[in-house]
Write a structure and sequence with these properties.
By secondary structure, the chain is mainly α. The protein has five helices and five strands, in the order βααααβββαβ.
Length: 192
Amino acid sequence: MTKKFNYGIKVSKRGFDVTDTSKPKSKKAPKKRALPSLLSSLALPYLFGAEIQVRRYCTAASTLKTKPVLGTIECLHEASTLFEDLNTVAKYMEMCGKKYKIHRLWLDVRDHIRHDIREEYDKENKTRKNLRANKLGIDPKLQTNIGFSTDAIKIGKVVIQIKRINSYLDRAEITISKIINRGRGKGFVKNE
């Protein structure tokens, strides 16, 4: 038995019309610069995921004084997932031609939490890991140096305010919405 799925999103491949998939590929396929409308819709799950992760992080951080060990463990997990989502949003934004300085920070923090802490030297050049640790201000004698509070996350000497993350997410949402709306107008994106 096949269940009908009433909600979802369709994104056409370059040159196809999302509103009529029976049409052959257009000879006037959009150029690569038209791809943002296609790519940005794929960023939405990670954008909303990052917004959820900020709330989850803040909830975990609120337990730090009463349950410091459990709170720290939860904060590390929520921060790890948050920076994974932030980095994914950044990658899509860059593919859409919107590159911001902060994107490098999202990647560095993500890679530090997800790889360097576990000493995944076999998967990455040690020089790159050490450069990242140096940029983040982590003492070379330490595997990591992460601190958590209700309003910020500190990696080495870099303090990332939660309000800065929220500001980035607001800007990304506006940018992605504009790109998607342009894509809808051109027939590349269709919500069902």
